[in-house]
Specification:
Layout: E1 2-6, E2 9-14, H1 18-23, E3 35-38, H2 41-49, H3 53-58, H4 62-78, E4 84-86, E5 90-94, E6 97-102, H5 109-119, E7 124-127, E8 132-135, E9 141-144, E10 159-170, E11 175-178, H6 181-188, H7 198-214, E12 217-222, H8 226-240
Parallel strand pairs: 2-3, 6-10, 10-12
Antiparallel strand pairs: 1-2, 4-8, 5-6, 5-7, 8-9, 9-10, 11-12
Helix pairs in contact: 2-4, 5-8, 6-7
């Protein structure tokens, strides 16, 4: 067993395999854990047996990988009670603020964030796939790195205030527009984890509602080009420089 600190919350992981301990290097904590997570042998086996062939080729350690997925799922099922929740997205940091890019698999999210880094080398990646968001006392959100970050493994143990959320869709022409809270909620609901228990589920919905009503939201229709990256960067960082909240 060991303890990690994710999004400011200390969490004990009662692990069976070394994989998840190695994965969490750099996130360890000596703090008293707020809660403990573990995965049973049956849960680990079911996770591995249900994984895609591409996953099996990438991760040669079936028990370790299965346990890691189960552990993070359980973390995300409890974390909302502490003001923290997962948004499936890539998180970048530019000029001290975090920007989220969320899209269905195959839309070009990974390519888009690579282009942000190409056109602006000072941009850094917080997490490539599964960052945590923490609600702050001022009503805004911070984006926090986690060691669960997709197949590329892009992550850093850092956090930054949220500057905006951008949903991606493929299109022939590049254009970006702001979204209403209702439009943003419809897209966000497809990218969050829903806990099974009523209390954390209710908190997840409360946090989601707070997010779409506080952060700038965008829909970027793009052809995955440098022009698209320039468009999103210029639009989002301009708003982020004004405080990263809706005006």
């Amino acid at each position: 067993m060991f303890t990690v600190r994710l999004a400011g919350v200390d969490i004990a992981i009662d692990n069976k395999y070394a994989f998840v301990r190695r994965q969490c290097e750099g996130y360890e904590s000596d703090g008293a854990p707020a809660f403990t997570v573990s995965a049973s042998d049956d849960e680990i086996k079911a996770e591995w047996e249900g994984s895609l062939p591409s996953v099996r080729q990438t991760y040669p350690d079936p028990e370790g990988y299965g346990e890691s997925v189960c552990i993070y799922r359980k973390i995300c099922h409890t974390a909302p009670l502490y003001g923290v929740f997962l948004v499936h997205s890539a998180a970048l940091c530019a000029d001290g603020r975090a920007y989220l890019f969320s899209a269905p698999s195959g839309t070009g999210k990974t390519t888009h964030i690579r282009l942000w880094k190409k056109i602006h080398p000072d941009v850094s990646i917080i997490n490539g796939d599964k960052p945590l968001l923490r609600r702050n006392g001022d009503g805004g959100f911070s984006v926090c790195g986690t060691p669960w970050s997709g197949k590329e493994g892009w992550h850093r143990n850092v956090e930054a205030p949220l500057g905006g959320v951008c949903f991606l869709e493929r299109g022939e022409e590049n254009r970006i527009r702001t979204l209403t809270p209702g439009e943003g909620a419809a897209l966000l609901m497809k990218q969050i984890v829903y806990p099974q228990d009523p209390a954390p589920l209710l908190k997840t919905l409360e946090l989601s509602d707070a997010l779409v009503n506080s952060a700038p939201l965008y829909l970027l229709t793009c052809n995955i080009s440098e022009e698209a990256a320039h468009l999103s960067y210029d639009t989002m960082t301009r708003a982020g420089a004004q405080g990263g909240k809706k005006r």
